[in-house]
């Protein structure tokens, strides 16, 4: 029995976008790389609590759940910068980021849980022989901790920001996990809930499935180039089996 079964939501690129020059869609896919927050796990309430703890302790205005939803996607530091008033210097921002990280490490499992249908989907994909990984803009320790808690034995490799991995939409994290899974980019599909995930997939040269239960809505995703959509986790399996990514 999997451990997870027992325990059981304006893009700014940090660097110029890469140019995709090779279409890898025509090969059978056996490797799936997932975003974490808003794709596999509903982490919003714990993120909200963590951001507001750090903001309040440093004397800044607390933010609503919907504001935090709009701030996340480009890493913790960028989200905090968006939550702060203009003109806050780098040293002060660093302090708030560190306070958030320390708090979040001890409070990231309070409200967080997999979206409905995620664990059964991952189990089915594993049984079908797919290689499964995670690439997130959350800091690396939290990514590994969350995946270990909720998806032990299901997610084989997971990386977050840090330890030489730049934030998405830089594709280095995708390339790293694909290599760790002993796979190839030609056999890979990327799955996420945001414009950053769409751009990451484009930069890596892989198809992208955009999920509609996450932090961004369909109209927003379409305006950012999304073409394939999953309304439920089972839709991901259907898209892959029918090879809809070829259209």
Account of the 3D structure:
By secondary structure, the protein is of the alpha/beta class. It has two domains: 173 residues, 3-Layer(aba) Sandwich (Rossmann fold); 64 residues, DNA polymerase, domain 1. The chain contains eleven helices and eight strands. Strands 5-4-1-6-7-8 form a six-stranded parallel sheet, with helices on both faces. Helix 9 links the parallel strand 6 and strand 7. Helix 2 crosses helix 5 and helix 4 packs across helix 5. The chain is globular, with a radius of gyration of 17 Å. The N terminus is likely disordered.
Summarize the structure.
With 247 residues, the chain is an alpha/beta fold. The chain is built from 11 helices and 8 strands. The strands form 2 sheets. The protein has a 6-stranded parallel β-sheet with strand order 5-4-1-6-7-8, with helices on both faces. A two-stranded antiparallel sheet has the order 2-3.
